[in-house]
Amino acid sequence: MAEDEDIRTAETAAPAANRPLRPSDPDRQTTPQERKRAFFILFVCLLSVGMGQTLVFAVLPPIAADLGMSEFETTMIFSLSAALWVLTSTFWGRRSDVMGRKPVILIGVFGFAFSTSLVGFVLLAGYQHWISMVLMFPLVMGARAIFGIFGSGSMPASQAYVADRTTRAERAGSIAQIGAAFGLGTVVGPGIAAAFAEIHILAPFFAVGALAFVSGIAIWILLPERTRPKKMLSEKQEKQAALKWSAPNVMPWLVIGVILSLSQSIMMQLFAFYLMAELGMQGSEATQLVSVGMMAMAMATLVAQLGLIQRFDLSVQFLLRWGAVTMILSFAMLVFGGSYGVLVSALALAGLGFGFLRSGLSAGASLSVSLKDQGAVAGLIGSTAATGHILNPAIGIPLFYLLHSAPFMLGIGLMVMILAFAIFHPVLKNLRSGDTGLVDEEEEEIGLH
C-alpha cells in the first residue's frame, strides 16, 4: 500500500507531459482502430436518423388520411419539427463544446428514438380508438416535437466529434462520410417503411425506433471520448466566449447554408409539380416517375460523398466551385428540359452538386474556426439545414404559380452567388488545409483523443 501511495505521489508531482499514461488515463490517445470503430458507430447512428426522416414523410400522410387528419394538419406536424430543429440545433452544438460530444450525441439519438416510437404509439391508440381524433393530433405534434427539440443534437455533435479527431487535410472527406450516412438513411428509409408496412402499417415507426435505441446503446458503451469538455464558465463568461453567428469567419457560411437549403427545397418540393405541369402527368404515373428521379438524385449524392470525395481527397474550394457549376447546369436543364429523360438527368446532376456543396459547406465552416468552437459552428450550420422548408412556401411556390420554371431560374441565381463566394470571398481564399498552410499547435492535436 505504501509503495502504491509513493507511486501515485510521484506521478502527481511529475509534469503531466512527462509522466507515462496508464491504459485508463483519460488523456490516453485513441488508436486508429478505435477511431475507425467510432466513426462506424456514428455512421450507423446517423443512418437510422436519416431513415426516420423519410420514413415519416412516406408513411405518415396515408396514415393521417386514414385517421381523418387534413393535409394542413399533416403538414403542420412536419413544419413544427423543422422549425424546432432550426431553433435548437445551435444550442446543442454549443452544449457539446461544454458537456462533451458523446453526451449530446446520446441526447439526440435517444430523443429521436423516443420520438419515433411515441408517434407510433399515439397513432396506434388512434387506430384502436383508445383516444379521440381531437386528442390524437396534438399528441402526434408533441411526439414529433421531441425530435425537433432533442434529435437535432445528434448531427452537430457527431460532426464536431469527427472534426476533433481528424487533421485539417482529412476534414472534408470525414465530414462527407457523416453526411453520407444521413443521406443513405433517407434513400433506404422508404424501402424499410414499405417492407415493415407489410407486417403492420405502424410497424416502420417501431422498427426504426428500436434501431435508434440500439444505436444509442452502442454509442454509450463503445464510443470513446477522452477529450475533456471545456471548463464550465459563468453565464457572463460563456456569453463572452461563445462563437457569434455574426463573426466574419462564420457569417459567410451561414449565408451559404441558407442559400443551399432554399435551393434544395426548391428542387425537392417543386419537382413533382413541375413534372406534372410540363409533361401532363397525373396520379400514380407521376408518382412512380418522380420516385425514380428522386432515387437517382439520392444515389448521385452518395456517389459524391462516399465515392468521389473519399477517392480524390477533394478540397473545400473544389467542392464549392464545382458543386455550384454542376447545380447551375442542373437548374438550367430543368428550365429548358421538355422531356422526362432530361428532367431525371437534371435530378441526378443535382444529387452530385448537392453532395459536393453540403460537404464543402460543413468542412469549410469547420476549418474556419478553432477546435474549441467545432460544436458551436456545427450547430449553427445545422440550424440552416431546415430554413429552406420555411422560406420556400413564401418564395418558391409563388414563383411557381407565376411561371412554372421561375423557381429554377431563381436556383440558377442562387448557385451563381455560391460560385462567386467560392472564387472571390476572402474567408474561402484564406482557408488553409493541412497540406497547404501552417497549422497551429492546437490543430496538430486533432485526432489524438
UniProtKB/TrEMBL annotation:
Which keywords has UniProt assigned to this entry?
Membrane, Transmembrane, Transmembrane helix
Regions of biased composition (Basic and acidic residues) lie at: 22-31
* Disordered: annotated span: 1-31
The annotated topology with respect to the bilayer is: Multi-pass membrane protein
Can you cite an annotated GO cellular component? membrane
Report the InterPro entries cross-referenced here.
MFS, MFS_dom, MFS_trans_sf, Tet-R_TetA/multi-R_MdtG-like
What are the protein's GO molecular function terms?
transmembrane transporter activity
Coiled-coil region list: none
Q: Where is the Major facilitator superfamily (MFS) profile domain?
A: 38-429
Question: A single Pfam family, by name?
Answer: MFS_1
Q: Which residues cross the membrane?
A: 38-60, 72-92, 104-124, 130-151, 172-195, 201-223, 253-277, 289-309, 318-336, 342-365, 377-402, 408-428
Compartment list: Membrane
Q: What is the lineage of its organism?
A: Bacteria, Pseudomonadati, Pseudomonadota, Alphaproteobacteria, Hyphomicrobiales
UniProt-recorded name of the protein: Major facilitator superfamily MFS_1
